[in-house]
Design brief:
Length: about 400
Amino acid sequence: MEGEQVAMSVGGVLSLFTGAGGLDIGLEAAGLHTIGCIEKDQDCLRTLEANRPGWKLLDTSDIIAAAAKLRPRDLGLRRRELDVLAAGPPCQPFSTAGQWAHTGRLGMRDDRAVTIMAMLDIVERFLPRVLVIENVAGFLHGQVSARPYIEERLAEINKDNRTRYRLTAIVVDAADYGVPQHRRRIIAVAARNGRTFRYPEPTHTDQLVRAWDAIGDLNEDAVPTALGSWADLLPSIPEGENYQYLTVRGGGEEIFGYRTRYWSFLLKLAKDRPSWTLSASPGPASGPFHWDNRPLTVRERMRLQSFPDDWNLIGTRNRQVRQSGNATPPLLAEVVGRAIVSQLIDRGRRWQTPPMLLRERSCTSVPPATVPVPVPPRYRHMIGPKQAHLGTGQGPAPRPAAGLAP
C-alpha cells in the first residue's frame, strides 16, 4: 500500500493525537501522506515507528507544548500550505461510558479538554486547507459537547485571518461503510475556504460485513482465557446477546435485574453480524467476547477495526488492546478521506476501485450459532426475581470531582 500511496499522493497531513495510526492509515489510502505526528503515548510511538518509519514523529510530542512552539517551518511549510490537519482528541470528557466514572462526561470542564484548545491554537498557527476531526458522538452533540467552544474559536480565527472555516459534523456507524463493527463516531470537517463538505453516502447498509467475514479464517496459536467471577456464565448466553438474556426479559433464567448493568457486560459476538463496539479498556466481564466464550485476540480486534494485517501493535497485550480500542477504523477514514480529496484537495478526482482497505468477504457460509448451555451450578443460587432499572433518567449521572460545580 505504501508504494501506491506515494505514487498517488495529493496532499500532506499533520496528525494530532495520532494513537495507533488508524486515521492516518485511512487518509494515506485515500492519497494523502502524513508529514508529522504529535503523540505522547510511548507504546503508540513505538507502533508508529515500527509500521511507518517514514512518518515524522515530532520531538514536541505533547499537544500543549506543540501549541506553544510548533511552527509551519518546522515541517518545511509556510502558513496556509498544510493540506489537512487531522485530529482525534481525547474522548473521555464526552464519552457515554464516561458517565460511570467519578469525573464522567464533564465536557469542556474536564482538565483533558485543554487539548482541544491546543488543537485550535495549532489550526490558527497553520491555517490548513481542511480540518478533520474524528471522535465519539458526544464530542459535538449533547449537553457537554465541545461544539460551542470550537465554533466560537473558529469564528475568531476567521475574523483574524480572513478565513471561512465552518464546522459541519455527522454521526456515522462505521458498519455502514464496510467496517465489520458497529461503531458510532462523529466526523467533523471544516474547509478554510468555507466550501460545504458533502459526507459520503453509506455503502453497506443493506449488506453489512459480518464478524465471521473478518475473523472466521483466523487460526490463532494462542488465545486469551476469560477471567473473573462471571467468566463461566458466558457459555449460557447466546451469540450476539449480553447479560440481559439472563434477566426477566431475556430467554434464560433470571440472574440479573433488567438493564442494571452496562451494555457490554457479558456481551458476545454473533458470527452472522458485525461486531459490537470494541472498548479500549475492557474489564474482565466486558465484551464483546468471541463466540467461543473468550476475549478477542489482538489480531481479531485489529481485523474488526479494519486494520491491514501487516500493521502490528507494540507493547503488552493490555496496551495493544487499548491502542486498538482507541483507534479510528482505517476503512472509515479512507472513505472520508476520499471525499475530502475529491471535494476539497484535488477537486473532481475519481476512484475506479473500491476502498483499498475494504476486505473481501468470506466465501464460506457462516457456521450455525452455538446453542447456550444451562446456567452452571455455581450460579444457580442466584436465580430468582430481581429489581429492574428504575427507568429513563434514573440511571447513573456524571459525578463531578471535588471543586467542580455539578
